[in-house]
Amino acid sequence: MLEQQQIQDRLVTPMMLGPITTPLTTVLNCQHPIMLAGMAQVSGGRLAAAVANAGGFSVVGGYECTPEQLRLAIQDMKQRFTRPDLPFGVAVAIPKCGAGARKTNKDATRGRLDELIDITVRSGARLFVSTAGVPPAYVVDRLHEAGVLVMNLVGHPKHAVKALDAGVDLVCAQGKEGRGHTGNIPTSVLVPAVRTLVLTGRPLRMRPNGYINDWHSRRADEIQRLCSEGVVPMDRDRQAGRPVEIPVLMGEVAGLITDILPARQIVEDMVREATEMLNLGCVYLGQRSSKL
């Protein structure tokens, strides 16, 4: 983890302070302690710029992107920035493959991880996020040499140990509500578990569509057999020329969404609500008795 002096050394032009200042806002040099996750198919240039312009910290989703696609997404985001020095991050999935890994795990970078890292470094990103898997030591070293911080998403305490051993600067404990692709432990349990390094486990949730419904209604046995053989059913269907409707992965938290709001309003609402709750909590400090 970063020492305080290292944090100070890596700071750039300070952003305007928001009502809530945390170690995260300090090390990432952002106004509010709110991050846009590097979600596949969602966190592109437009959304990333909207969140960054609102004072949050944006992470561009690079899952299964080619180097050129990632470069264009970052370029699109920067063109939408209200100021050129807004900090941002880049997310890439580096799942473990081969011995000791799940048979269905595939190289999401298609052998082009080094190129994706080069683009991240050249883009001026403040943060690199591995959304699945621990980045190799040489990748962490390359990013650190360029002054880029490294974050690892973890869904299990043992993942946190491996990430820290690899030299990452930040660990993000992602509960199953956040889509469940790193584990099946709820945030309320995972965060304290990561802090104390206790053990537990993992599945996956997505928004149903016609393609997925067909899996459940007609192809359940086939899907189970293919997965047991290390074959990704969707990849097999693509290769066979079958129509594939790509599903949107999501977590249980999606059930709380009732309105479609602008990114700026969401950021402002989160900051306002957090400030109200923190102020409310302070009311109870030092009081001999509380009043209803």
TrEMBL record:
Oxidoreductase as UniProt keyword: yes
Pfam family, one: NMO
Keywords of this entry: Dioxygenase, Flavoprotein, FMN, Oxidoreductase
Signal peptide coordinates: none
Any one Gene Ontology molecular-function term assigned to this protein's record: dioxygenase activity
InterPro entries named in the record: Aldolase_TIM (IPR013785), NMO (IPR004136)
Coiled coil: none
Protein name: 2-nitropropane dioxygenase
